[in-house]
């Protein structure tokens, strides 16, 4: 087989879903926002992967470059709303418009089958479903407690549903353990125990 006829192996990002809300999970596809931003929606296939990994759709949405641009625009509008909530500010009207415009479109269609749910729709439908999750989140009569991960660089935002609202990290593996280990090492250095 010549290289031209080899099947293309699609390398897709393994997305993370730790925010407790679909819209906040989309916000998390731009990592390390304040230090060294890392784009997890770099190509349309990344959006396809996000939609199926999130369970928004069970089939690929076959995103275009335009859909990718729309997804990032929605994501930044959602980030603006979440940021405003965290800071106790009023939401930016332009960001609200972007979210409402996405939510106004036809959402993903769920269908029950003997083998579970089949969810089909285009990329705009998947973004509509995501935007609707944001409307539910921000309009809830008792505003759920939003938090930003306690690891400074992380910048992931999540809904804290833990008992007593004591959740500090987006996830223990990626952030909690690392921060605790760094603090432990720092304590050892301070007490002159490093290297012993
Ligand atoms: Zn984190």
From TrEMBL:
Pfam families the UniProt entry points to: ABATE, zf-CGNR
Alphabetical list of InterPro entries matching this protein: ABATE, ABATE_dom_sf, Znf_CGNR
Top-level taxon of the source organism: Bacteria
Zinc finger CGNR domain: residues covered: 146-188
PANTHER family per record: BLL6575 PROTEIN (PTHR35525:SF3)
Annotated protein name in UniProt: Zinc finger CGNR domain-containing protein
């Amino acid at each position: 087989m010549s290289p031209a006829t080899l099947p293309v192996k699609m390398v897709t990002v393994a997305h993370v879903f730790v925010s407790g809300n679909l819209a906040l999970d989309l916000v998390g596809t731009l990592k390390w926002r304040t230090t060294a931003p890392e784009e997890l929606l770099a190509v349309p296939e990344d959006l396809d992967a996000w939609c199926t990994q999130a369970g928004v759709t069970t089939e690929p949405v076959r995103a275009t470059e335009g859909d990718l641009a729309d997804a990032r625009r929605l994501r930044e509008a959602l980030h603006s709303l979440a940021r405003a909530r965290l800071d106790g500010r009023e939401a930016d009207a332009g960001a609200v418009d972007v979210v409402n415009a996405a939510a106004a479109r036809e959402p993903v269609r769920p269908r029950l089958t003997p083998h579970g749910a089949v969810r089909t729709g285009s990329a705009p439908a998947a973004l509509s479903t995501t935007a609707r999750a944001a409307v539910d989140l921000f309009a809830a009569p008792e505003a759920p407690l939003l938090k930003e991960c306690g690891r400074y660089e992380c910048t992931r935002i999540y809904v804290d549903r833990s008992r007593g609202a004591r959740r500090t990290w987006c996830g223990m593996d990626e952030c909690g353990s690392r921060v605790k280990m760094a603090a432990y090492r720092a304590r050892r250095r301070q007490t002159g125990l490093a290297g012993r």
